[in-house]
Amino acid sequence: MGMYHSTYFAYGLRIPLDVHPWTETDRIDAELGAVKSQCPDVGHLSAGDYDRDMLFLVTQSDEIALGEYGRAALATPEQRADWDRQLRTAVDHLGYGHPQDLEEPGWLCIPDLS
Q1: How far apart are alpha carbons 19 and 52 in whole angstroms?
Q2: Which one, out of 3, 39, 86, 108, has a CA that is 20 to 30 A from the CA of 56?
């Protein structure tokens, strides 16, 4: 069995779950499809330490290969404000609690081992 390591730079926030993130992906895809006009840039990412993945709602996400480097995408303050609005709308629509109860959206560096 081999291991695969990757890292993501993403703009978004972590959604704490009591279940494995993979159990949520189909529901998230369907629910985000219903609010695509309000949250056109929002997607999701499951990543973490082997079988302890975490769930993230993200707008901008870039994979950085092992041995490479990268930097977060450039975004204007207006773009980040729009992403924040979209993420709050998605969190509310998906039923992950009140957006104010979660961490603030921001640039994340997310390592993944699978």
Answers
A1: 10
A2: 3
Report the residue count for the chain.
Answer: 114
Q: Please state, in angstroms and rounded to a whole number, the distance separating the CA atoms of residues 71 and 1.
A: 31
Nearest to 13 by CA among 100, 110, 104, 113: 104
Cα gap 77→98, rounded to integer Å = 23
Paired strand residues for 48: 53
For residue 107, which of 7, 30, 4, 3 has the smallest C-alpha distance? 7
The per-residue pLDDT string of the chain (114 residues; one tens digit each, 9 = 90 and over) reads 566 778 889 999 999 988 888 888 899 999 999 999 999 999 999 988 877 889 999 998 988 887 888 777 788 999 999 999 999 999 999 999 766 678 899 999 988 877
Name the nearest CA neighbour of 80 among 15, 3, 11: 11
For the chain, how big is the Rg over CA atoms in Å? 14
User: In the structure encoding, which two tokens stand for residue 64, read together?
Assistant: 């950085």
Q: Which residues pair with 47 in a beta bridge?
A: 54
